[in-house]
Amino acid sequence: MNIILILVTIIFTLLIIIYVIYSKYQEVLETNKTVIKDAVEGYASRSRALNFSTVMYNQLCAGTYRDLEIKQKENKIDNLQIDLSKLLLFNPKSDFIFSEPATNSNNSDSIMVTLYNIVIVKNLWLEDPFHTNFYNILHILEKNYFRTINPNTQNFTMILRDDKNNTSISDTYQYHRTDDFLTILLNKIIYDILKFKKEDAQKIIIAICFFLITESIHFKLKENVTIFTESVLNDYVDKYNIQKIINLIKNKDEKFSFFDIALKETYFISEKFTSNNNEEIDKINLKLRTYNKSYRSI
Question: What pTM did the predictor assign?
Answer without folding.
Answer: 0.69
